[in-house]
Amino acid sequence: MLKMGIKPDNFTYPSVLKACGDEFDLGFGRELHRSIDASGLEWNLFVQNALVAMYAKCGEVELAYDVFEKMPEKDVVSWNSIISGYASKGMWPQAFDLLGKMRNSNTPINLVTWNTIAGGYFQAGNYKDALGLIPQIRKHGIHLDSVAMVIGLGACSRIGIVKLGKEIHGYALRNGCDGNESVKNALITMYSRCKDLRHAYSLFRSTEIKSLVTWNSMIAGYSHSDRYEEASFFFREMISTGIQPNYVTIVSILPLCARVANLHHGKEIHCYIMTHGGFKDYLLLWNSLVDMYSKSGKISEAQKLFNSMNEKDKVTYTSLIDGYGMQGEGQIALKLFEEMNNCGIKPDHITMVAVLSACSHSGLVSEGQILFEKMSSLYGINPRMEHFDCMVDLFGRAGLLKRAADVITMMPFRPSAALWATLIGACRKHGNTDIGEWAAKKLLEMKPEN
């Protein structure tokens, strides 16, 4: 067109800029921007909107914002383009700030903007804020679409608000959206995560064509409720229908195998991961396998898997430390803890429970005491109830009952019935009736059901 001497106008530029954005061709997009500036054409809202959208799609949000800021006139498309640009880069504070400015400018906010911001709150873990936008959308007379419903249902499932989830379900039924696959999958997930498995199962069975996402929603729901048998049944049923599991499926059911120490099914999944490609880069899967073998007492298998892993994090080390601790191999657990620190991997409160418990099971009193003292000073971890539990167990097993009792009286938490029971058990083992009677009196004052 240019070679023929035909000059582009305000109808030409938006189309070509859109193509640049769709193809992520930033270089040609910049050329067009220079051409627009040099063209002498009058300022045009559609051309400027296309420039903002092109830069935003190409990930150059600062350039997009620069164009946006200089626009003497803005419409809802201008605001949506820049907000979506920041959202796509995960720059949610800037996106939220722009929504506030958009409201102040009295520009009508459409569903695209609401959904973008609600999705941002959801991704940031602000589920209450995401849900709080739904009444505002309705207040503006805007009907929820499937995207808004999926975000709302997802937020309900994360914080367990089944009542609001049911209201969204009712809205979907009234507006004929309940047949939408994404909405139905979100409903199944919401009901199952809120432990309303009857409704989840009913929706699942009423779905004629079940996609992998549908199966994953159901498996994840039962796994979330620690319903191992049902989750395993759905997993096998899914495979029998010819649908192959993906990372989401495996990551839903494998940690459950670890929690219930189901070695047989865990080994099957391990074999599946090894014989099917695409899973080697997912550290969470390998961590779950190490955890499963450790909890099942197959510490050599856990160690072998640990050695084969190119990448390890604190979860990997914690799982193996915990496994050796349960086997009474406290010295190996301590060496692993030292190795973890030497690798620059910082322990968390769960790691400290694992290593203190390992010291307790192996009678490593001084080592456990030193680690406990280092928790806040060296690792920046404030001791929690479970760490004091470990120390009472550590001293109790070693027969240092006065020190165990001191831990209970000096800790900044109200002792639980289980903690008093631990001390009583240690007193019974070592024949200390004085401390045992004191602990028993405290336990009876709590009036535990058992």
TrEMBL record:
PPR repeats lie at residues 44-74, 75-109, 110-144, 211-245, 282-312, 313-347. Keywords: Repeat. One of its GO terms (biological process) is RNA modification. SUPFAM superfamilies: TPR-like. Gene3D superfamilies: Tetratricopeptide repeat domain. GO terms for molecular function: RNA binding. The keyword Repeat applies. PROSITE patterns: PPR. The keyword Signal does not apply. InterPro entries: PPR_At4g14850-like_plant (IPR046960), PPR_rpt (IPR002885), TPR-like_helical_dom_sf (IPR011990). This is Pentatricopeptide repeat.
